[in-house]
Specification:
This protein is an alpha+beta fold and 466 residues long. It folds into 3 domains: 5-171, no CATH class; 203-302; 306-465, Heat Shock Protein 90. It has helices at residues 5-53, 59-69, 105-117, 145-197, 213-264, 273-301, 314-329, 350-371, 401-405, 422-433, and strands at residues 73-78, 81-86, 94-99, 123-128, 137-143, 308-313, 334-339, 345-348, 375-383, 387-394, 437-444, 447-455, 464-465.
């Protein structure tokens, strides 16, 4: 119980209520002491009035009056004259004098603490105003023993009463908090446990129902979180299913392309000039398709294979990409431009680099084709002391806001209708395998530019140089 939130709340409530009662107890004891002394002054005044009514009072009766008043002597000041009305032997000297005519709260508390602190029985003088204006001043001497005993009894009784009140209050607060706060919190915890058993079941998502605003805000936040997680898990499942389907298709497609590759070998012996010119490109395209199928199968088993690095002439890779895309242009008015230094060689996996540039150029071509207007795609490159920089630019319509926000998110970063956005995701992963990155350098109504940065220093892990 003490480890639970409700148990600790019960204990803390009792402690704080008792602390509050203790803070109230000290002024209460001080007020009790004041009332006790005032009652002794009143008794002494009544005894003195009896003596004033009959000057020939017997000594035994005088002592009885003093005992009833619990004082040693009484001094009454009337008409500016100070008169000792009643007296008896005082057992010792007067140690303190207390004036109750106009005391402050601080003085009463301090004097009460002093009285409790001194266990010995002492003689004190108490001064006050007579009741009903029966004189100017009344003064008595009295012992502190009975006063201290009465204060202790009063304090103990008040403490136990406060303790009972504190426990009763703590129990009521505990029951109230348990009903209105802890029970709804346990309900939220139960919802979380039920949801954790099958997070893909949307029926297990919590429906906010709390009437307390803060608790309802927590339920709404949990509802949103569970909804996002369920959607993410469903998307992950779809991706897994898609990956399995792609792996099967790639397996069969690889076999088909391998057969086609055997037939294209015959094209190399043809005497037709056009066939001789196009045969190498067809063979290269089929070879890349076979490699892509094999890489897809590998990706379905684990991750994209680590790049096999070698010195690559970038102009050859870009030339192959542009030649392939020129054939895909068809009737559209799209031109291609290259600004690649002939001597520029960089360290990369040639097949993966081809796939990256091909994806960017193909996306640019499709974006321009969708507008129906003429356009241009340009590929340029440069190098710095630390990086090789490759830019793929187009004069298309630019990326829409949704595509920019989810640029490298599968199935969400597609810029054209029906696009999946996988091309950029795959390209970004391939470049990360080289230790580099792809950035959207600019986009707008006048076109889009992507920047590929490849580091010259090998800082990644698992890069196998060939």
């Amino acid at each position: 119980m003490f480890r639970s939130l409700s148990g600790r709340f019960l204990i803390l409530t009792a402690i704080f209520v008792i602390l509050a009662e203790v803070l109230i107890l000290v002024p209460s004891i001080a007020r009790f002491r004041e009332d006790y002394l005032l009652s002794r002054l009143e008794r002494a005044q009544i005894a003195s009035l009896a003596l004033l009514a009959d000057d020939m009072i017997a000594p035994d009766l005088e002592q009885e009056l003093l005992r009833n008043a619990e004082v040693y002597n009484v001094v009454l000041r009337r008409d500016e004259a100070r008169q000792l009305v009643l007296s008896s032997p005082v057992p010792g000297p007067v140690t303190d004098t207390y004036d109750l005519r106009d005391p402050t709260a601080a003085e009463l508390i301090r004097e009460a603490i002093v009285t409790l602190w001194r266990p010995e029985n002492q003689v004190i003088r108490v001064i006050g105003n007579p009741v009903r204006e029966a004189g100017l001043l009344i003064e008595v001497t009295m012992p502190t023993g009975p006063l201290r005993t009465a204060m202790l009894e009063y304090g103990i009784n008040m403490f136990f009463l406060s303790a009972v009140f504190s426990i009763f209050t703590a129990v009521l607060l505990f029951l109230a908090v348990r009903s209105f706060i802890l029970r709804p919190i346990k309900g939220v915890i139960t919802h979380m446990q039920v949801y954790a058993e099958d997070p893909e079941d949307s029926r297990r998502i919590i429906e906010p129902s709390a009437s307390v605003r803060d608790l309802r805000d927590a339920e709404v936040a949990l509802h949103d979180l569970q909804t996002q997680l369920t959607n993410a898990l469903r998307q992950k499942e779809r991706l897994a299913q898609l990956g399995s389907a792609v792996a099967k298709i790639s397996h069969d497609l690889r076999n088909i392309l391998t057969s086609a590759q055997l037939f294209t070998d015959r094209l190399e012996i043809s005497e037709d000039p056009a066939v001789k010119r196009l045969a190498p490109k067809v063979i290269n395209s089929i070879t890349r398709a076979v490699n892509l199928c094999e890489a897809t199968l590998a990706f379905g088993r684990a991750e994209e294979p680590a790049p096999r690095l070698s010195q690559v002439a970038l102009i050859d890779v870009v030339g192959d990409v542009i030649d392939s895309e020129r054939l895909a242009v068809g009737e559209h008015d799209i031109s291609f431009a290259e600004d690649i230094p002939a001597t520029l060689r960089l360290r990369a996996d040639p097949e993966q680099l081809y796939r990256v540039i091909f994806n960017l150029v193909r996306n640019a071509r499709q974006a321009i084709e969708n507008t129906g207007a003429p356009g241009e795609i340009a590929v340029s490159a440069e190098e710095t002391d630390s990086h090789w920089l490759i830019r793929v630019s187009d004069t298309g319509p630019g990326l829409p806001p949704k595509a920019r926000e989810n640029l490298f998110t599968p199935f969400q970063g597609g810029a054209r209708k029906g696009g999946t956005g996988l091309g950029l995701v795959i390209s970004a992963e391939l470049i990360r395998g080289h230790g580099g990155q792809i950035e959207l350098e600019s986009t707008g109504p006048t076109g889009t530019t992507f920047l590929i940065l490849l580091p010259k220093e090998i800082t990644g892990v698992g890069l196998a140089a060939r």
